[in-house]
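Narrative progress, year one. The postdoctoral researcher (J.K.) led the effort to move from monomer predictions toward full complexes, under supervision of the PI. The following entry was the first complex the group processed end to end, covering 1773 residues in total.
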Amino acid sequence: MLNKHYKTMKKNCSSDGLFNYWTFRRKLILKMKLVVILICIIGLTGSYASVYSQQTKLDLNVQKTSVKDVLKQIEDQSEFSFMYNASKVDVMREIDLKVEKCYVEDILEKIFAGEDVSYKIIERNIIIIPNNNGSTTNQQQKSISGKVTDSAGGSLPGVSVVVKGTTTGTITDTTGNYSLSNVSPNASLLFSFIGMKTQEIAVENKSTINVTFAEETVGIEEVVAIGYGTQKKVNITGAVGVANAERIESRPIVSAGQALQGLIPNLNVTFDNGDPSKSTNYNIRGIGSINGGNPLILVDGIPMDLDMINPNDILNVSVLKDAGAAAVYGARAAFGVILVETKKGKLGKIKITMNTEQSLVQPIFYMNVVRDPYVTASAWNDAAIHTTGTPAFDDVYMAGIKNWVNNPTEQNAWGVRNGVLEYYGSNDYQHKLVTDYTSQQKYDINISGATERASYYVSGGFLNKPGYFRNKEKNIQFKQYNLLAKLDFKIFDWVSLDEKISVNSVSNDAPHNYNDDVSLNSVARVSPNLAIYFPDLPYYITPGDHNKYAQYIGMGAAIGSGGNTFFPYLEHGGRTTFSTDDIWLTQGITITPLKGLKIRGDFSFNKYYRNDQDVASKIEVVSMNLLSNPMISNGFSADDYIKNSSNKNDYYVFNTYAEYTLDNIKDHYLKGMVGFNQELGHNNYFWAQGKSLITPLVTDLNATIGSQTVGGSKSEVALRGLFYRLNYMYKDKYLLEFNGRYDGTSRFPKDSRFGFFPSVSTGWRISQEPFMSSAKNWLDDLKIRASYGELGNQMLGNNYYPYISSMDRSMSVYIMSSGQIPVISPPGLVSPSLTWEKVATTNYGLDFTILKQRLNASFDLYTRDTRDMLMNATYSALLGATAPKANAASLRTNGYEVAISWRDKIGQDWSYNINLTFSDNQTKITKYQNKNGAYNDYYIGKKLGEIWGYKTEGIFQTQDEVTNHADQTYIGTNWNPGDIKYEDLNNDGKINKGGGILSDPGDMTRIGNSSPRWAYGFNPNIRYKNWTLDFFFQGLLKRNFMPEGLNNNQSFYPYNTEGILDYYLTESWSETNRNAYFYAPYLAGTDKKNTQDQSRYVQNGAYIRLRSLSLKYNLSENFSKKIGASDANIYFTGLNLWEHSGMHRPLYIEADQIGQEYYYQRIFTLGVSVSF
Amino acid sequence: MKDLFIKIGLLCFFGILVYGCNDQFLNRIPLDQISEQTFWQSENDLKVYNNGLYTLAGDWRNTDILSGNFEGMYSGTMSSHSAIWRWDIMSDNMVESNSRTNYMRNVRAGIHTVRSGTDWGEAEERMSYGGWSLVRAINVGLANYDKASVTEEVRDKYAGEARLLRGWFYAQKVTHFGNVNWLDKELNIDSPELNSPRTPRDQVMDNVLADLEFAIEKLPNDWGDGGAPGRINKWVAIGIKSRICLFEGTWRKYHGLANANFWLQKSAEAAKLLIETGPYSLYKTGDPSHDYNAPFRVLSDLTGNPEIMYWKKYQMGVVINNAGNSNHEDSATKSIVDDYLCSDGLPISLSPLYKGDVNFEDLFMNRDPRLRQTVLHPADEHYYNFGNSASYTYPRVSGIIGGVTSMTGYAIIKYYNVITATNSWGSDETPAVIMRYAEILLNYAEATAELGTLTQADLDISINKLRDRVGMIHMNLNNIPVDPLYVNDGVSPLIVEIRRERRVELYAEGFRYDDLLRWKQGKKLEIPSYGMRWDAAARAKYDPAGTATVKTSIVSGVEYIDAYKGTNWGTPKFDESKHYFWPIELSVLSLAPEIGQNPNW
């Protein structure tokens, strides 16, 4: 009986209240028009739930039946539940009753006519209370009242409060208050609330008992999503990492990827750069296959792009790392599964939370470009003299600069020589182009709640994230909109329906990239000595010619052939824009027809649209040579065009599974699950390009007059799988689990299309053993586990038909008369035996919880073998076609991971917790065909990430040293003091790369490894009263990085780009700076003799970073009340506030290149969150 | 009702499980691609397929035969350096400063090596024993053209086109590798041909000739496309035949192989046929000072030029090149400048008209007018708007600040166009001349001279036509000068002069290196790349600021620029025992050792 009450007790929620409330708050949220729609939805569900007792009519016809049974009949017929104290209310009294279509109040009126009882209807709960307390007992009875709150201080309505051992009880009202009369001081009160741990408190002589419920179930009671179901954490036998909302919410993040970085050991999240429109890279446990292979990411059971969802909607994340955990996902789970669960409405009062974050975003710019043009020009001169014997700039030019530096007027900034304008000033390029700070705004609102028959969660989010350009009008604009609505209806006790609508929309608007020389990248390339604009001078060549050149004033300067600054392209050039709309609809049904049996089915439907437009309109730049004819050219924009493309993808996911639990056999627990999954995708893509815009002002294909080209593609992919899981537990100690999947894909030929991927895992909860009972007071849980399983990898990128030979159509670039024409290529060779890559994982784990759940730790050790990897089989070149890939390579990844958390309280006011994660993995090639043994290809025994290069012996200090050293002319000519001295590893008197093969590597050797090693996250969190301080450090203990030295424009190596960075001046070799890090100033140009990959410049990429720092203040209850809120928080958070690494500037820890495309950023955020 | 629900639910659930075993759902075939079964129907199919052969043949990674001025689809390091004229960097004609041409400069200096492992620059791919995807595509086409329901004539037209490209490809491979694996059908991974030795030269060349003659017979005179650039017609095929047979004939003659005359005869016949029946003539507007280089300076379109037999078009938005805009100081050598005759038809060593090189401008006085249309005369700066600026003194050598510098002082004007030279990267449409009528005339003169049948009439319809255009004195069979410079070449003065004519006329058109090989004159590459006279007087005049970075050497007591002095290419070598062939890279040999390396590599 009592049990049943828990299940059905829900709080009151009147629609009137909601709408009054809405009016009251209207001004505050008026701007968020989106919300209106959501409110309407809520309004409907609210009113459905609130009028139950006024709507429900009942029929009864009984003779000589006890009141108790009558009430029981009412319960059976309806959703009402009765609560009464049988010792106080005479329910054994027999009555006759016949009513038709009567409201429950009228029926009760009849039943209790003449009895001295009253009743209270709280939604579907009816409490029957005797008015007369009857004869008092010997004991002194007393009244008790109090308030029930959640951990954040919010009131909890609908909590059941029952006197232990009786049926006397009540539930808390909408403000969380309750009162009970006639309670014995010897009694205890049981406070229970769905999803939370029941609390028992002795009455003693207290008259007020306030109770706070912990919001999360923690420790050994924790339940974890494991794919088509859940499992208690203590009973998990596979390797599963978990992050809950508590840990995700504490950061001012704009994407789910940022939220997850560093949280779960061996879930490696990386970003290509700071651009929010670029996708995040996820990896679990290291490199899975030479062909790539990413984790399967499922949001509420369907494959979604995590970048597209609102991180505020995430409830928790489980990461299935090994085959033991992931096998139910079969062929896509070889490299792990990330399960994301979004929030749901919680039983309780309607809760509206509004959140805004206003941020300052500072680009992390690691380049200190020398801004004094004289210093820059002198540095170039020194380098040029050292390289060629002559300076780069002559005396007249240098004198001009000197003059400007001494007297920096606009007049002095310019000179004309031989009819060519010369610029003597400093253009302050970086600061003119890039702003010091930009802003970022994020707004979220969510409304959630639940009645006993329905729950709802709706949220809306908006993110505005501009780029870094100082030019506001032309800045990059990234915007993201998210809408999520989740509704659950319990239509019968044994059938519930759930719907989910998710609409995610992203748009981006950025300048067209005409060339890397004229993009944000140019910050690293453009010298401060370059002119940006055509100047306004009194005269140019001869007095009086001002009018002739006036037309060019203010135009962007063209320097040389193509070397331009970004400004004219930014200011007048075209834009690259895209917008993406990703819409998901899910309908699910859950049936629990029998005890222990649950059948669930859901169908999801996705519409994905992406529209891109790339406008490369013409800009004009003016020659600095005043005698040029013509003066105006189009720089990189001569070939102007508009290209539009459109993706329309449909995706269908169907899941169904049945789970049967058998837990009523003594000591044995058995749970079986079997299910089916089917997915189908249609991809549709087309593009159209038109050349020659009529005017740059009209950017539509319709307004082009040049050649027009179109193209497109269509494809389909289908997946189908049958999966199962079987759990067996004996005495809660011995755990055994079988998982598996029989999976098929359309990507493989018929005969090798299906694969069976089983796994088995087992665990032993040592702490449950009798012999461990003595440890009970400190050991909460101790478990060891092991798993083995085989999974498949079908990762073939976008190659949907790898086994079908087709004749590709493409456009010829060989002109036949005019324009592009289609060509058909000969059919390629395909392999008829193509099949899955197979991935076998062995995992050993240890979990324990000790010291009254204060310390929680988990260790995993694993080996993952990837076999039958597709590789390019090599045949004689005479074959004349790309040989079909063969399933012929293997690799092995070994690794481990540790997660430790500690939580404790100090006194009443202080509490803290510390989370630590640590992980490592290494991958080695175990099988590969590399006949020559080329070291820059894979070879057996190769550790992935190996960096090959020369060993640097040092820097030549004297000419004698050069003469006596091995012959370096294979690398470059003209070796002098100040140049790099490479070690002659094979003592052949020559410095070269030999055959480039392992047996003849010349003087090349392994000089480092770029694989990230020993990744850690360290997350202390301290609470004091209403204050919460959260730090999150994250980093790597080992990694090498080799700056790219053989291409141009790598600003790391001195004098490789036009700009001079401060350290070029102090860290380059010279007679007086012989211990310098870099070689003597050298105009690299195309001669890369000193910038070969070599040990000297291998960077120590280990780092530590303060990923986030957050200080949160929870406004006191009284204050919250004043503003009508139940909860209010104000917080400051900083993202990427500090980092330290061994990398030399301007290299940034996370960048693989000196990427200047879009800097990483420090984000300072002030956030306010208010709940009602 | 509950029971009913449960029954339906369970039924559905198990129904789905059973349905799941049905495999049709997973059968997905491509929605946007053509398969072999649906292709090969109409003439258009054949045409569209053959379009792809041109694309493949135009890819420098396969072969040079159509590679033109740069293939816009590959933005690699080759981009600006595959222009046809830059092939002369491999010879004694031209020097260049960009490291991207190192592989060509290495060949020029004889320091190229066998490529091994994967240490394989993109640039060197051009010299690889590769291009088999073109051969495969041709062979696939030849095996399938029959399927189309078209007339034999139409089918043969496309078959002829394919075989022409195959023959040409093989002839070009033979040029640098000697024996080459002949493939005439599509291979699969189990074909024995993958691991067989190379086919002997004689046999390959017989096959080449058969391909060419088939093509000449079947190709149309005109594709009906209004003389558009693109498809190769019968006349071009004949021209290609004259080129290939001349190479083969002279190679055989000077390298001591049999049947030289057979090939020379074929070359002469083909050239004669073209001269007598072909629709081409030299480009002449009556402006002898500019008619010679004008076709090379056009911006984008050579349509209608009567001399241009085959050219490759570039067009903004389709395929562009960077041939014009990247000034890497390409410049002419003293060797070529000195090879121009004086206006009396005598070499500078003999002519009284030669003014010497003390004054730069004197070099051009009384010389073959083609010199001034090849190398920049300081006074022509305005005419060419050289450097898009009107205020510099030329010549300007490396290191001098401002203007356009050259490594030797001999800036090349033959291709110069100010628009393309100052265009931004990636916006150049300079057309590539792959075959012009002048070459046919030179092929004819050379083949007949080598056969010993050359008459004055032959000269008058060939070389003297070229000389007429530029206002140069005729070559007279009865008055052939004997240039002391070449008396030790082992050939007659007539052959010397015909070769000189070829070098001068076809300067910077990519012929010189291959010509030296077939004449067995590799030793000519051992002469360093000198430039202009750079003595104290020249320094004072042209480099008063003293910033020039050029190095010099003393030649016959006079100080000349030595363009590569002090670099890897400073003292070029030519090893007679191996440098007439290129090495086959180890990556090819390791997978198919039967192919075998060329001698002494």
